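Per your request, structure below.
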């Protein structure tokens, strides 16, 4: 699998790509979740490594150059979880603790049991010596999970993990700690369920202008129309409350298995940008 590095020209609204894409793994990779470590100026890609047992791996990259000369140098792949297949990978960067948080569905080879897990990692080194060291994984869901999203809320210093099971959209608020790296979850909260809303292909981001989590999804109970709602994280106890869902796309936004709606926040214009397949 390969990655390309682009340099954005904001005044011209253009992007110039590095002339040579860079291979980050020689194996078949799926469910990849890239995130930027703003403390170390590194890119961390977590992914399902189909060439190595379908296990969860991460790799750290150092970007250099601009324009056609832009490139990225990777360290060595790091196995995150052994003897278990992985699916539905997502990640975020905790800017307060300077830690990477990865969430995924784990399938135990021995028992076949599914769990939703998160783990906290610390990046070190640079160039070919760049690596990431993880703490101990923590389960936030017993059973299968799909369409995970992991979002950091810098205003409450909390991580929010979102997922769907049978169309029921669920969120859980978590606290990251260091020394050793760990994550602790509160109680899950449902944000879409049953006859009114049936969530697929979830996307999410954090709006730092409004201090809110924005969730997007294909509503299977409404012809897979693109739908969004806003959530607020509160502490003491840690939980979330949600506003009313609204439709942003009347067409079918169900892109297929594993193809989440992409949702990003533009802090310069205070806009949420959503990209999706209109089937």
């Amino acid at each position: 699998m390969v990655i390309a590095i682009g340099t954005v020209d904001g005044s011209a609204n253009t992007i110039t790509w590095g002339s040579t894409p860079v291979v980050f793994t020689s194996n078949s990779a799926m469910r990849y979740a890239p995130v930027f470590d703003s403390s170390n100026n590194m890119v961390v890609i977590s992914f399902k490594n189909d060439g190595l047992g379908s296990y969860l791996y991460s790799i750290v990259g150092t970007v250099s150059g601009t324009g056609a000369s832009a490139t990225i140098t990777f360290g060595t792949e790091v196995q995150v979880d052994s003897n278990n297949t992985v699916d539905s990978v997502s990640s975020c960067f905790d800017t307060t603790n300077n830690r990477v948080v990865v969430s995924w569905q784990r399938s135990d080879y021995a028992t076949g049991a599914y769990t939703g897990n998160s783990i906290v990692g610390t990046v070190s080194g640079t160039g070919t010596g760049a690596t990431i060291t993880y703490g101990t994984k923590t389960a936030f869901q017993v059973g299968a999970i799909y369409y995970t999203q992991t979002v950091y809320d810098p205003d409450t210093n909390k991580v929010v993990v979102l997922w769907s099971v049978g169309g029921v959209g669920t969120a859980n608020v978590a606290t990251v700690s260091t020394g050793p790296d760990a994550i602790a979850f509160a109680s899950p909260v449902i944000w879409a369920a049953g006859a009114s809303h049936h969530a697929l292909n979830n996307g999410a981001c954090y709006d730092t202008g409004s201090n809110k989590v924005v969730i997007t999804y294909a509503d299977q109970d409404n012809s897979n129309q693109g739908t969004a709602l806003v959530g607020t994280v509160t502490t003491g106890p840690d939980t979330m409350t949600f506003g009313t869902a609204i439709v942003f796309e009347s067409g079918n936004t169900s892109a297929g298995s594993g193809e989440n709606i992409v949702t990003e926040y533009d802090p310069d214009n205070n806009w949420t940008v959503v990209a999706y397949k209109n089937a």
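The CA atoms of residues 9 and 239 lie 40 Å apart.

Regards,
D.
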